[in-house]
Amino acid sequence: MMAHPLSDKSIDLIEDSWEFVRLRFGLQITGMVMFKRLFEISPNLQELFPFAGEQLSDEHEGMKHHSLTHCNDVAERLYQNDMECSKAQEETVSKLKEKLISLGAVHHIKGATLEHFAPVGSALIWMLEVGLNDKFTPEIKEAWLSLFGVIQSIMELGMAEGLTA
Fold it and tell me: Nearest to residue 56, comparing CAs of 25, 35, 85, 83?
């Protein structure tokens, strides 16, 4: 069986903080806040999206759709899998790893590079900090950074496979 690098406490913090933000703002707004922040700190990344070069607003249909799709993916992975990988169940870990490797390959094909992970991680943490407000703690930040690190390392495998394909 594969060991999972996140503690049960970290997983609880991730699940609880995501649920709070999701219920407070809804998935679409949560995603839009994150993407708007991403494009503020790294405007060049907008070129990788279907709405490249367009003026973005809260009413931009393409960004609203993309935001909702991405946040639904996060919610599906957190809740449908019920973070079973925390219990080191090999089948669930394997399925999640396969999905993330595939996601890395798709992002590579669309032009994403390893350097893009840092601003995405920053935008994610910023969105959580804004969404959680005074409930945002160093422990929550560390849990999410750990999760993002796991996701990044697995997606990098898919990006590398995309380089050799």
Answer: 35
